[in-house]
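Lab notebook, bench 4. We co-purified these components, and the gel suggests they stay together. Before we commit to crystallization screens, I want a quick structural picture of the whole thing.
Request: model the full complex, all chains together.
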Amino acid sequence: MFAYIVRRVLYAIPILIGVNLITFTLFFVVNTPDDMARMHLGTKRVTAEAISKWKLERGYDKPLLWNTTATGSAKLTSTIFFERSMRLFRFDFGAAEDGRDIAREIRGRMLPSFALALPVFLVGLAVNISFALMLAFFRATYLDTWGVVFCVAMMSVSTLFYIIGGQYLISKLWHLVPISGYARGPDALRFLVLPVIIGIVSGFGTSARLYRTLFLEEMSKDYVRTAKAKGLAERVVMFRHVLRNAMIPILTGVVVVLPALFFGSLITESFFGIPGLGSYTIDAIQAQDFAVVRAMVFIGSVLYILGLLATDLSYTLVDPRVRFQ
Amino acid sequence: MRLMFPVALVLALSACGEVWNDPYPAATRGENILFTAFVQRPKHLDPVQSYTEDEGQFTQQIYEPPLQYHYLKEPYTLVPLTADGMPTLRWLEAKGDAGREGAAGGTQSVYEIRIRPGILYQPHPAFARDAAGTFAYHDLSRARIDSLRSPYALALRGTRELVADDYIYQIKRLAHPRLHSPIFSLMEQYIVGLDAFAKRLDSANAELVKRRGAEAWLDLREFPLEGVERVDAYTFRIRLKAPYPQFLFWLAMPFFAPMPWEAERFFQQPGMAAQNLTLDWWPIGTGPYMLIENDPNARMVLVRNPNFRGEPYPSEGAPGDAAAGLLADAGRPMPFIGQVIFSLEKEGIPYWNKFLQGYYDFSGISSDNFDQAVRVAVEGEATLTPEMRERGIELRTSVAATIIYLGANALDPVVGGESNAAARTRARLLRQALAIAIDWEEYLSIFANGRGEVAHSPLTPGIFGYRAGRAGINRITHEWRNGAARRRSLSAAQALLAKAGYPDGRDARSGEPLVLYLDTVGRGPGDKPRFDWWRKQFATLGIQLEIRETDWNRFQEKIRKGSQQLFILGWNADYPDPENLMFLLHGPQGRARGQGENAANYRNPEFDALFGRMKNIPNSPERAQLIDQMVAIYQRDAPWIGGFHPKDFMLFHSWLGNVKPNNMARNNLKYLKMDPVRREALREAWNQPVLWPLGLIALALLVTILPALASYRRRERKVARPPRRVDAA
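Here is the predicted assembly.
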């Protein structure tokens, strides 16, 4: 297994370089260093000298990818791409364009994102699996039919609607929790109740319906019939056999998102005023802060690769037939 | 066990107090605290760099320049803040480097500013000294710095008296090579020796960085600046190369607020910047408030500066202020509010709802909430809806010192026509026709809920030279009928268009339809109604309008290159002087030619000559006459095809007092007063938790689950069907 992990980590290096290159290209197709300077210096009374000075200080006066004026390896290394992107592999994120330390900012914002995403993930998973198991258990009854209709209705509504509707009903009309905001420590609980509920509700329809399909597929297999023929109770069949065997496809979708829990939710964080990484990324894109954008994309890629690796490793836990070669 | 989570949740919520939805800690209840919001994290809190209103709401409560705007008087009036009186002005005849005193109107002007003795800085570790009298925290170890999260984590605090040297130090910082002061390029044109000083600093800084690293402190006290002179401990002079009466307005901005050298020395210690401990993050001032918590991702907290001298509340105001109760606190020492909590609120809906729940003390109104809050009468008067009145909410409106305009690029052959006199006339008539046809009143009604005034000139209300009513209307586009300005009929526009050579929107020579192009920044699908409206306005004259939608960067690039045709831009006045609006049409400041702020690249020698005379004379009948002439030229030439001045609507709760909008005075928090007891009572009344929906939800779940459980139990207990008996025949 160790060799497998090492091989996968090595595969990740060209992927990360590629992601960096694509991010860099996309960013600089839309923005030039001059645009970035103007964005940071403001629109009033900005002179060409101030722009040149801003670029010089941050190394944006250099060519993007290839420095024809340099010699030797400096043709490659004395460029914006090399200087700004390659140090990411040392997890050195440097400073944002406004001079503030990115790593420090990420550390500060990771916890609020995690505090929101973890309960949404865990409670959501439990609720969705339970509901899907119930529908599978009562398959072809009125409960199953109306349950599926309910799921389809839930998945047809946009997340934004749930957020606005939830804030309106639960906070504005019923006054049960604060509409938005965040506090550090245990006080965070009352700010997280509503976004967590909304996070669970908004993902409920899609996931429950998917899991129901997976369970039904398992229930039609021979081993289930055999288990029932042995006289096992329906509950035992469902939880001990069907659920366990349906875990492989569930894990594929679930484990891969585990590392991304730190990454936050873009819309929810913004609407609920939660100072997480999702809103950090959105703000950086709006502010044309390349330093933050590249750092967040890089971290996102690393987390995604880790998630995929964790998914593969988790298969061995739920399916003894899986071997790494 | 099953009930543990809901019970714990209800207990946790109950522990919050009588109301469950209060977003603030219980300790803040009933306290003299102002709750407000910020929508965008500030980029700069260093007064030499900060320029936006978002930043001003923090910096202007902390930093004190020598002057300020009177909070109540109308029109805008400058009054001393830390200065002992208004600056005195002397004229000099420049001769080489030396100046010789001369008569008024000489080539150099000298402002002498005397500040009041006894003003103290806020308590701060940068001033703290140990028992031996040396600075306690100017040489912190790297380990100590790495453990710091806030400068206020350091135990010792100190202060010192404000002196003239602090203002001089700040003026020098305008040229600091590691800072980007947005007004440096302007000030180097005026302050004697600032350009040479900047060059000296540049080379000194390069050498210092080479020797001691990028974080080494550049002590500006070692570098003299020719145009700034210390007279005594409380007096300094600023020498300007040319007459510049508007300089006084700059003296009311944080760019000219004092900066103690100890602050720079403290924050310039190696390692501080990596901990976000910078002057750009942690201001140090003499103002009524000090920033003690800076978490721009969640909240910023200002508390009363215990060393603040207690500036008295104004005892004079505009007519009507006394009747409105705005002079009731005359002479009382400010600030009245002990603490200000700013919470980050990026989205409009939560912001508005929290205001209605009483968790924000004041709010603006977005278009989405306008109908809920305000009703506009036929005469245009805005009043609150019964729902707002019931809650005791009050409304104040004010016209912003801002102009939004539809510009026509003078460099464009069709709408500018600079190539020859005939083309110029044709383009002018076309612009005049458009200025009549584009119904800005309708635009404001549809897209701004009537929150704005149609602009008849570049000047905004409240600025010297602005004329209201009949005298101020643009007679090309409007006429005075039934006591109000009415837009001229479309036939007048059509006649002008025909005269321009485009009868019915077609080129009389070629018969081709006239197609015009509007360059604008696209913001998404929501733009469509606006774009349709624009097309419809041009279509009334038979003109086809093509909208060239682009992003902000490309739009700016087009403006810089002068390749746009029609465009929409705006300008917020830096200070209330006609020069700061008229310069937007000053020829030498054309954007494409000189990278100035004249985005229309308009150039009229007559206008430029009048501007040159107007800008340097004090407000007087002569100046008013010059402005009238300039406005007449503007109306005739129509370099901007109309525009409007946005109107700010501010709502505030009944427990907040002394509220008066002032578009120039951003240091307004010190004037506000609060009745926290009333706020607490109303918050409780408005936010009682409604519990029946929880019961209803629980019931609905039971109704769903119970039949399922029953069905499950039935299935579990069901016995296998007995085998059918087969009788042998």
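Residues 236 and 281 of chain A are 46 Å apart (CA to CA). Worth comparing against the SEC data before the next meeting. Chain A touches chain B through 63 residues (CB under 8 Å).
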